[in-house]
Specification:
With 492 residues, the protein is of the alpha+beta class. It is built from 11 helices and 24 strands.
Amino acid sequence: MKISIGVYIFSIFITSFCWAAIELPNVIGSNMVLQRDLPVPIWGFGEPGEKVSVNFAGQSKNATTNEKGDWMVHLDKLSESFTPSTLVIKGTNEIKLENILVGEVWICSGQSNMEWGVKQSLNAQEEIAAANHPTIRIFNVPGHTVHPIPQRKGRGQWEVCSPQSIPGFSAVGYAFGRRIQQSINVPVGLIGSNWGGTRIEPWTTVGGFKSVPELSNLADQAASYKSDSKIGAGSPSAIYNSMVHPLTPFALRGAIWYQGESNGNEGESYYQKKHALVNGWREAFQNPNLAFYWTQLCSWDHGNLLKKGSPDKNAWARDWGPLREAQFKALDIPNSGMAVIIDLADAHNPGDIHPRNKQDVGWRLAQWALHQTYGKKELIPSGPLLAKQEIEKDKIRLSFNYAGRGLMVGEKKGTEPTKPLQNGKLAEFEITGADKKWFPADAQIEGQQVIVSSPQVKRPVAVRYAYYICPIRANLYNQEGLPASPFRTDNW
């Protein structure tokens, strides 16, 4: 039987396209850093039943796509490597990914203070010019997008850290990654996924909400979405679905998080949502030990009341006090930490909600990671965190965790190290009796403790420190130069 040329060509055409080419999520690409010392997922998409092989660093792994066309392999634990390597994936087609290193990988996420680029931070020109770090790799999720259901491929690409690639990347993330790389001398990969002005809820997974009983209504709302559901930037899980889920389950050591301004009127509920966020991301990235370090909110002169000379803190005082307290309380999450940055507001412009000193923010987040994740126990990870109070007649004695070599009255200027303030007096302490009337307090340092009193309060019951939105005079530090977190000892 004769077959016409046209039919023959058509049959070749059909045969050639009966299998779709293997595709990868954008987060798996040339120039990336793969996480050391953990199983490393490599995954992608093709036609159902397609055979796939993955070869890297002497390992060869095989998979077959499932009925949805998804496939995944796990590379065995890798050792750090500064030697650029190639990862080869073969299915119907072949993909070669070049210039891959092995080291430590972190995701940097949150709202605008994490999104704020190097080009917008202090000393931007100098920072950009010096950003020649070929063993730091950055991946920035571009744009601001939402979706009602989890997406697969995502957007973005890995780049080598350089003066050309760094200007728009998170300044906090860059400062963090640079210190990690220089301190432990391994390649570092940084993934940025941020959106200014967003709340915590849209970054949280359905599973995260389900893990906290008090948030069951948010879990039900997010779980009810269909592919055509109308959602927005404030909808639970909406940003996660579009800007984080396509990154999962890329192997990570941890996450750094700078967010909370948009939830600034909350207290206990933010504590619950922080648990949900962390639980959900640990599940999504398939790493129950994922380190999670966040930034407590900085001072902010809401309404420029300091410039107006307003003596009445109470009209605006408690904004952000409960939110910072919730951030502090969330330290009960295992393998977590909180960088206190109450002192990093611009002294000349405390009304700017975007302090330009991102270098110290990243440095302090790295302090936690180096101490807790990388075992540098000689480092004190934090400034003083309240441990307990003891009432002693007309005084209250406060004890702290992370008092280090001792407490001091400190002064922080720009990116310079904190200096002891000679003959300085502690500020921003308040004290009250059972009548719940608060008075400015005298606070004296005794070694690793603070003694608080006031002649107007004969029988004190509680103390507050920097417990309002802009405690610009807060100056309690440990001698390592790290500031104390705001706190209260009452529960009113």
